[in-house]
Write a structure and sequence with these properties.
The chain is an alpha+beta fold. It has two helices and five strands; from the N terminus they run H-E-H-E-E-E-E. The protein has one domain: SH3 type barrels (Roll).
């Protein structure tokens, strides 16, 4: 006897977020595989300490830095919890 699958049986398992809102983080630059645009963006933020303010899709996070008006968007591999 065959069993019918539901949509929930075939959806990928959600990936657990590496960080949550309000986590303190520091930007680390993994520059060995980045393109030129990523390189300069990360170099501008490298070593800055901030706080996660929003979880985005594809394990990306919006980070607010003290004394800066704009937030930054980073992948989970570009941040470390402090």
């Amino acid at each position: 006897m065959e069993q019918q699958l539901t949509i929930f049986d075939v959806l990928p398992t959600p990936i657990k977020a590496a960080f949550v809102v309000e986590d303190p983080v520091i930007v680390v630059a993994n520059l060995n595989e980045q393109d030129v645009e990523d390189y300069y963006y990360l170099k501008d933020h490298e070593g800055l300490k901030g706080q996660v303010v929003k979880l985005l899709s594809h394990q990306q996070y919006e980070v607010q830095f003290p004394n800066r008006e704009r937030t930054g968007i980073f992948g989970h591999e570009e941040l470390r919890r402090i």
